[in-house]
Amino acid sequence: MVHKTWKSSHFGQARSLFGNYLRPKRSSRWAERGLLLAVVSLVAGCPATQTLPEQAAVQEFSEASTERKYLLYVPSIYTKERKWPLVVACHGTWPYDSADQQMREWAKLAEYEGIIVAAPQLVSSKGDFPPGPTKQIELQEEDERAIMATVAEIKRRFSIEESQVFMTGWSAAAFPILYAGIRHPDVFRALFIRQGSFDERFLPLAGAKISRWQQIRIVYGKSDILRDQSVACIKWLQDNKAWVEGEEVAGVHRRIDTKFTWDFFEKVIRERPWIRLSVERAQGGAPLAMQFHVETSPRWTKLKWFFGDGSESYDASPVHVYEKPGPYTVRERGAGWGKGVYAN
Length: 344
Known about the structure:
The protein has seven helices and 16 strands. By secondary structure, it is of the alpha/beta class. The protein has two domains: 53-271, Rossmann fold (3-Layer(aba) Sandwich), CATH 3.40.50; 274-343, Immunoglobulins (Immunoglobulin-like), CATH 2.60.40.10. The strands form three sheets. The protein has a nine-stranded mixed sheet with strand order 1-2-3-5-4-6-7-8-9, sandwiched between helices. The longest helix is centred in the middle third of the chain and has 25 residues, at 133-157.
């Protein structure tokens, strides 16, 4: 693991950490393209210009297994004696967005609210002229590996609350957020997409079982150039039985205050259950002996398992022996915060 530390007061003068290889040569041709990009950026959205907090430095790391770079902000009041929420902030299309711009959006709020924020370098978040589905899915798979490895690395180094890991981003960041996020509902409790891009061909997940416990929120502008894509994304998620809510706001394709995102994540923490079920073969047991586990937030105080063969159990982590092989629908009913909830 390699990392660098960037002092907040000099961050705005530093070169882009991840976009240097895209820097155009000085020529009239590139000057024309630069002017075009500047005009397009007025439509596509403004860059983040927030100043970074002085209490702690933004750090750059290279994740060991994928060698992918990411920026990390840890609040100055961090202590391993408590658990901390983690937000993975994904960037959209360069040059309209980047990991350092995402960190500019999030760092001050992270210091104030007590959030650890990671902004990874991504290769699949390209909204203007993305590649075909085969290549795009390959890039999304690369980002998925990097994002999951980055989250695992941060969890090893810092005290992270397992039930408070979230992912968010703007515009073309929707590509890696949806691909990695809905494939790992056991890791990401909720997803928040702002003014997101969408192409159903990039998500070969139709018909797959999508978690009903992972909350997804999509916000888009009434005059947003990506409005139709956001609406299509919401419908696709609904058709695939995801828990999703959408909101249309005034304006065009632009950044939305990160406090709006964090308010949603806090509401999820307060009001909506997080449930992680797992099953494995019981060690040293009969061939068809299975052990079941559940993690919830808020914590369930009463549990009841239904194993799909007529048997039941009130144990927190029961072992059940099936009489014969076959498919079984296992349900668990839990209560502890005023109402019962079933999980399949």
